[in-house]
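Check this.
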Amino acid sequence: MRRRMNGTRLTLLLILVGAVSGPALMALAEDYQAIPGLSAKDRVILATNMVQQGQCTNGLVELLEATKQLPDDEALVRLKGICETELLRPEAKDTIMKWLTLAPQTHPERAKMLALLAKTQASKEDPTEWLLVPSGEFEMGAEGGPAHTDEAPKHRVFLDAFYIAKYEVTNHQYLTFVKSAGHRAPENEDPKFSIWRAGAMLDGVGELPVINVSWDDAAAFCKWTGGRLPTEAESK
């Protein structure tokens, strides 16, 4: 995330960061094998715990194995849809649609699953291209000369590998988020600097980086996409 001041106007350009378990790392599932000897019910329980710990990639492996015995189990199909959406798998929409036919209209998770269904469509309309940043160490901070006091002291920082979006988030991508999640549209304190009117953006700005969003707005967008904002070290 970068900040730029223009008078009293604050511009925020979003950079989306994917965790190591993010969509571009689905290949890691090849390193995980379903545990032999478990019943399908036990696999669902195991996968549930994995998902709660952020291990959607491995959890999906167990769910796919359990599906062989329980293809129409409501809890299994729901969890599978959650994992596939988190990992941006193309079959996520069909899985959620199947769950919607299996689950009763009064199911307490129905609203959440409908929100995920909207997210699967958004991911097709606005695909994110990811770049791998390898793990490694670098020198962070500055001392002396033009450096600010809060930049000192220089120190070595090690970062684990992570994926980061290749391009800044566009107004069109943010509009999809606003419509799907019911989030507020960007605003500027001075209306003449705003490129949004009545919750919709002006013509011709769809591919430009989104502006006039707060830190909370940026964090909400990233959470909606399954990513997060970069840390200070990751943004260097």
